[in-house]
Every structure is written in structure tokens, then in C-alpha cells.
Amino acid sequence: MGRNRLPQPKSSAYITPDGAARLREELDHLWRVKRPQVTQSVSEAAAQGDRSENAEYIYGKKQLREIDRRIRFLQKRLDALVVVDRTPADTARIYFGAWVRLETGGGETVEYRIVGPDEFDLEKGLISIDSPLARALLKKTTDDEITLALPRGHTLYTVMEIRYSPFK
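Now predict its structure.
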């Protein structure tokens, strides 16, 4: 297998104000706290002498590269993101930022919020706008049904409720 990889599919550039704030906090923490700590530990390890067999120095340099890579990614990503800070004009339909309560074909009720790909968290009920479920839900209204093909088979969902909470 070669080193050539297919390019990653473009993800949506939308994010909620909360998600953007979390990314900015992470960037600030990496830049102002974590990077100086690791830089200090690398310089202390370098002062111990032979760097070729100094595990602390080698690990610190690797950790510094990972931090720098994440900082570059966050800076580029934050520049490209569009912060969605208002509810849509038609709140009867499902759009970005909507909380959606669904009933599965088996009678189980689940609730999700459609958010940007940088902030999804299934444990909190946050799904990416790029996910198959969110794409199928977009522009649907209450009582609409969708069928989603999953690895374990097709699942039927019925939209029970759509609501929008104010963005902060």
C-alpha cells in the first residue's frame, strides 16, 4: 500500500457560537499554556547532554510537533468557519442548530441537535450536519418520515418535534 491517500471530503464550514468559543479556547490553551510548558521541558532535557539517547528530549520534540500541528489546524479552521448565531426564518423546518426529537420504527425516542462537524458529540446528542442522518433530516417538518440505510439495515424515523434554542 502506497502513501497516496484520497483527499478527505470537504466538511461543512458551519459552527455554533459555543463550538467556535471552544475551539478558540483550545487554541489559546495550546499556545499560551501547553506549548511553553513543553518547550521548557525540551530545553531542560537538552541541557542534560547527549540528545540522541535522551528519551525525554525525543518525546518532548515529538509532543511539540503535535502541538504545533494542532495549532496550525485550529488557526486555519477558525478562519474558514462561519459562525451561525441566529435561528432560521422558518422554524417549522429542520436546519442547522435545530433540536430534533425523533421516534424510531421500534417506538424508541431519541433527540439530536444538528451542529458543525467540529463540535459533534453523540453522548450529548450533537450530530454533525455532514452525517447521513442530519442530511436526511434537513428541511423536514414535524410528522415527516425518513428511511435511513444503516449497516444493520434500514431504519425508519418520524420527526416528532423541532425546536431551536437561542444561540449564545
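The longest strand covers residues 153-164.
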